[in-house]
Amino acid sequence: MSGEVPLWEVFIRPRNGLAHKHVGSIHAADEVMALQAARDVYTRRGEGNSIWVVPSAAITASDPDQAAENFEPTAEKIYRHPTFYDIPDEVGHM
Amino acid sequence: MALFDAVLELADDHLVLGHRLSEWCGHAPMLEEDLALPNMALDLIGTARTLYDYAATLEGQGRTEDDMAYLRGEREYRNLLLCERPNEDFAQTMLRQLYFAAFMHPYWQAAADSADEVIRGVAGKAVKEMAYHIRHAGEWVIRLGDGTEESARRMTDAVEALHIYTGELFEEGSAEGVDALPSRAAVKPAWEAIIDHIFGQALLSRPVVQYPQTGGRRGLHGESLGHLLAEMQSVHRAHPGATW
Lengths: 94, 244
Fold this sequence. Notes:
- The structure holds 2 protein chains of 2 kinds.
- Chain A is an alpha+beta fold.
- Helix content of chain A is 18%, strand content 21%.
- Chain A is built from 2 helices and 3 strands.
- Chain A has a 3-stranded antiparallel sheet.
- In chain A, strand 1 and strand 2 form a beta hairpin.
- Chain A starts with 6 loop residues before the first strand and ends in a 23-residue tail after the last helix.
- By secondary structure, chain B is mostly helical.
- In chain B, helix 6 packs parallel to helix 8.
- Chain B is globular, with a radius of gyration of 17 Å.
- The chains are: A alpha+beta, B mainly alpha.
- At the A-B interface, helix 1 of A face helix 2 and helix 6 of B.
């Protein structure tokens, strides 16, 4: 059955104020069923308070063969990381 | 005691239907439903536990929820015939769930005003679960009813097979005059409205039942309940009092 049913990517928001995060994928015939399946598969332990589903076919992914040219050049640019600042304790979690 | 009987009946409905749904675990047509069906089973079994516990308290004979669930025979079970009907195919399972949830949702809504604190507590939790069961089962009924030629045939067969058991939902029986619980008969218009709304989209029609099947509330069950109880109770009966 699953072979004939479209695949959907599932995003869950764990709490208000946080971003939706990809958690996995499910099969469903349409968007209504996809939301139900996502709820049943991925929120059984109180993981979230909002669900997004996106047709997997709608996602354009980067080519793994281009990983080197895409991502390796940034490795040596450590000056882009904001790690050279002292953050006062009072600021708390950033 | 009318309240005890009525609570026990409700508990039996939930446990038996919950057990039926749990039989799909590992056998559902797709992984997503393999999780969804036991999710719904656990909703029902959770409600059954609270109700058995309450029934045992009302009875005051020292019985526990386990005694109620595992040490009563077929004739002592008071569940609706609808709840014990075998799973058969996925269409029948979804329709059975819709029929039951479309009754329990308005029933628990009405029970939210009960003067009985336990009933009010159960109602508050269960009303949300039943709303989801209606949605989950209802969406499947719509898609199967208005789906392929085969899915439509199976859905029509399911209505044919199960609709004769729905009249029993509205029998007051031992709940007659019990103030703590809502009237079962009064739920009928809400139930019909939910079913008609979904059947309209599913291209199904609500049949007129010539020979309604009842008897569960009097302990008169179909053959399949005995098999269900034998499986469900076997571990407890083989190892009485075992805990883990």
